[in-house]
Design brief:
The complex is a heterodimer of chains A (about 230) and B (about 80). Chain A is an alpha/beta fold and about 230 residues long. Chain A contains 6 helices and 11 strands. In chain A, strands 2-1-3-4-11-10-9-6-7 form a 9-stranded mixed β-sheet, with helices on both faces. A two-stranded antiparallel sheet of chain A has the order 5-8. Helices cover about 35% and strands about 30% of the residues of chain B. Classes of the chains: A alpha/beta (about 230), B alpha+beta (about 80). At the A-B interface, loops of A face helix 1 and helix 2 of B.
Chain lengths: ~230, ~80
Amino acid sequence: MKAAVIVFPGSNCDRDVQVALRQSMGSEPLMVWHKDSDFDKVDLIVLPGGFSYGDYLRCGAMAANSPVMKEVVARAQKGVAVLGICNGFQMLTETGLVPGVLMRNADLRFVCRDVTIKVETSQSLFTAKYEQGEAIRIPVAHHDGNYYADDDTLSALEDRGQIAFRYCDQEGKLSEAANPNGSQRNIAGVYNETKTVLGLMPHPERLADPKLGGTDGRALFDGLVEALS
Amino acid sequence: MKARVHVTLKNGVLDPQGKAIEHALSSLGFDGVNDVRQGKVIEFSLSESDPAKARAEVEAMCEKLLANTVIENYDIELNA
């Protein structure tokens, strides 16, 4: 399996993703600078977290219109797996690869802590190593993670099984108290229609090594390697 | 030609920043302020001098970059 991590000016989780991928793949992912729209064929593209282009205008808006993203969108449309984490999720909504938008957190605060999220389905490239309904602990760190889409879009997402993760308590129950940012229907991550593109606010790469205090994020990368090798 | 684009949140989309401003105004003693909504104003000059062509060009900019039409409306003002 080959993977590429796209590095934008202002990305700050690109190295964390590189380490997590190296650990699961046993080989080096390609690190692609945002100006290089011509990069090798890969099975997985990761859009990392951070503050690409200083979050100017709207989070992810500048990145979504950068030359490398035209190539990412074209490859995603051909079925190449794309994982967008945090700022990467914001880029995915800005390009329209996944529906909805990430607004300012409802309480207006930057939230940086571990949250519990429920794995909605194990039937995807990204979640095959988790149990359906499993509650996993993953950190969030964002100011704009409040997922919004209109009610028709939300219901269509639910009907088609496109909700990937929801914020929950430690027993896996959804509640307002477990929702760190005001996201509609506690949504923490969504798929595109073919479930080959995943956007999520929590950072699985930050809890993929016991030395960092947890490994709940590792199964996402291990699952991808198994599915795409 | 000068263009001014107003980007505002659509009706029905919650605006936590607007709510915070409303709350701050009220605590400053400005009573009777309701429905505060925060938006953006983007100004620029255009070399295009034909108003219809300029409007079409700015509309395309709004659709492609200046507004996220999932949650935002835009309003265009043009001045010679």
